[in-house]
Amino acid sequence: MPAMKRKLDERDRPQPSSPPKPADTPIPSFASFELEPRLLRGVRDQRWNEPSKPQAEAIPLAIQGKDIILRAGTGTGKTAAYLLPILNTIVRRPRESSPTTTALILVPTKELAQQVTKLARDLSAHCGQSVRTQNLAGKESDVVARAKLAELPDIVVATPARASAHINKGALSLDGLGHLVIDEADLVMGYGFKEDLEAISKSIPKGVQIFLMSATLSTDVEALRPLFRLTEPVVLDLGDLEKDSQQVKQYVIRCAEDEKFLLVYALFMLKLIRGKSIIFVGDVDRSYRVSLFLGQIGIKSCVLNSELPLASRLRMVEEFNKNVYNILIASDEAEVVGSRTKANDDESRPKKKAKSNKTESGVSRGIDFIDVSSIINFDLPSNYKSYFHRIGRTARAGKTGTAISFVIPADKFRKHKPTSFAGSKDDEDVLAKIEQKMEGGQKMENYGFDMKKLEPFRYRFQDALRAVTRIAVREARLKELRTELVNSSKLSRYFEENPEALSHLRHDLNLNHPTRIQPHLAHVPSYLLPGGKKAVEDMGFVGLEKEKKGRAVYRKGKKVVRNKAGKIDPLKTFNMRGRGKK
C-alpha cells in the first residue's frame, strides 16, 4: 500500500491514519497482551490494575512490530507503552544470541532519562541479567560512559547530544539495534537537537521499529518521519488529557502584584488547598522569594532549582513524591524574561537559540509527580502551551485536580515594585489565548475571592513579606549551593585534601538564617478568620508569659507582690486609693 501524506488540522497536528476505537470497547488486561510472565510480575509490583488507554492501544501494535506515533497527555502511561513491548522482545530472544544494544531511547532532559531508566529496571526486576539498562544522560566522564557501553547493554537511555557523541567516537554501536524511541518528540526538536538526530539517523540500520511519543503532534514531530524513514506508521491520536475539563478544575484570580503573596498566605493558612501542590513562578529568584515567604508563616516547601546538580533535583522530586514536602516551587527555565511572545505570535516558530535551551528544570513536561492535587500559577507562563503542560502535573491517571492562576491586569502592573515581575506585563493577552485554545466545553472560572475578607491578614502578610529582601533571596540561594557542595560525593576527595575549604563552607552554613523567622505569623487567631469564630469582646487578655504562682502574699490584709529576688515590688503593691490610705 503506497504511503499517503496526511493532512494537518487547524491546530497544526497530523490527522490519525485510522479512526479511533469506539468508547465502549472494553479495556484489556496486561495478561491479554501475552507478555512474558516475569514482566507481568514487574507490572504487579507497580500496582497497575489495568492498562491505560495509550497502553491498551499501543502495546498490541508494538508487539506486532509496527512503527507508532503516539499522542497522549502526561501521566497516561506513555513510557510503559513502549517499554513493555521492548522488554518483551529482549526477554524472549534466544539465549544463544550474542549480546548487543537492542533499544535506544532518546529523551530531551536528564531528569526524564533517569525516570525512564528507573521504570525500565523496575519492570524487568524479575528478569535477572536478561535485561541490562544504562543511562548515558548524566555528567560522567567519557571513560566511565565508554566502560558502560563496552558491556553492550540491552537498552541505552540518553539525550540526542550524548548519543550522537558516543556514536561518533565509536563507543556506541547500533548495528544490532531493533527499537528506537524518541520520547517527548516535540521537545526533542524544540530543544535544538535536530543536528544530533540527523547524525543518529545515518547510523540507524533498516528495519528498526520506531516509536515517536509526545503530548502534542505538531510539525516538529511530523518532521521526524522522513528523517527516520517512517513510511506507514500507525498514528494514535488519543487526545490531550491535560485539557480534560472533567479532570482539572481551572480558576483565575485577577489581583495586584503584592496580593499574590496575600492570596498564597490565605490559601494555605485557611486550608483552602489541601494535599500536595506545585507552585509555578517566573524565575529562580521568584521561587526562593516565595519559599522564604512561606517559611515566615511556618509552611515548609522545597525549591526545584535548575542551578543545582541533577542528583539534587532528582532527590528533591523524590522527597516531594514521598510527602517529605507537600509544596514544591518551580520555574520554567525555557521561558526567558523579556522574550515573551505576544498572544498573536504564539503560533510562530521561535528563532533558534543557543544550546543552553537544551536544559531546563523539567517540571512542566516529562518528570512524573505523584498525587499532585493542585497547581498554582503564581506567575502566568509565556504562552498557552506552557500553561496546559503545567496543569498537566495534576489530574493524572484519571484523578481530579485544581489549577489556580494569578493574573495581573494591565492597570495594576508595576504598581508595587518590590513584588513586580516583568513577565506579568502580558498576562491578559496570554489568558485570552488560553481561553481561546480550550476544548470540549472547558473554561476558566473566576475564583470569586472576596479580597475584603482578607484585610485582617494584611498586616501579617506585609510583616512576612518585608523580611524577604533581595539580600535574603541571594543568601538563600548561596546557602543551598553551599549545602550541595558540602554533601557532594564527587568533592569528598577534594575536601579530604583541603580540609580548610570544607571548614569555611561549614562555617558559612552555620550563619544565621537568610530571614528572621517570626513564629507568631504561623498562628492565625480565630477572630481574624473571615466571619470570625469568636467576637473580639469575648477574647480575654492573654499575657506573653505564664503567671508565676506563689509570688503574691498578704500582710495585714494588704496584697504584697515580691519579685524574683524576693524583694517587695512597689509597682504591684499599691492599692487603688493610694499608698498609706486605709
UniProtKB/TrEMBL annotation:
Q: Which residue range or ranges hold the DEAD-box RNA helicase Q domain?
A: 28-56
Where located?
Answer: Nucleus
UniProt keywords, alphabetically: ATP-binding, Helicase, Hydrolase, Nucleotide-binding, Nucleus, Ribosome biogenesis, RNA-binding
- Give the main EC class: hydrolase
Q: Does the entry feature the keyword Transmembrane helix, yes or no?
A: no
One Gene Ontology cellular component annotation held by this UniProt entry: nucleus
* Family the entry assigns: Belongs to the DEAD box helicase family. DDX56/DBP9 subfamily.
* Every Helicase ATP-binding domain range: 59-235
Could you tell me the Gene Ontology terms of the biological process aspect for this record?
gene expression; ribosome biogenesis
**SUPFAM superfamilies in the record, alphabetically?**
P-loop containing nucleoside triphosphate hydrolases
Q: Where is the composition biased (Pro residues)?
A: 16-25
- Under the GO molecular function aspect, what terms does this record hold? ATP binding; hydrolase activity; RNA binding; RNA helicase activity
Any stretches that span the bilayer, and where are they?
A: none
* Intervals of motif Q motif: 28-56
Q: What is this protein called?
A: RNA helicase
Reaction(s) the record says it catalyses: ATP + H2O = ADP + phosphate + H(+)
Keyword RNA-binding annotated: yes
Q: Where is this region: Disordered?
A: 1-31, 339-359
Q: Which residues form the Helicase C-terminal domain?
A: 247-455
What species does this protein belong to?
Massariosphaeria phaeospora
Q: Where does the secretion signal sit in this chain?
A: none
EC number annotated for this UniProt entry: 3.6.4.13
List, as start-end ranges, the regions of compositional bias called Basic and acidic residues: 1-14
User: Which PROSITE patterns does this chain map to?
Assistant: HELICASE_ATP_BIND_1, HELICASE_CTER, Q_MOTIF
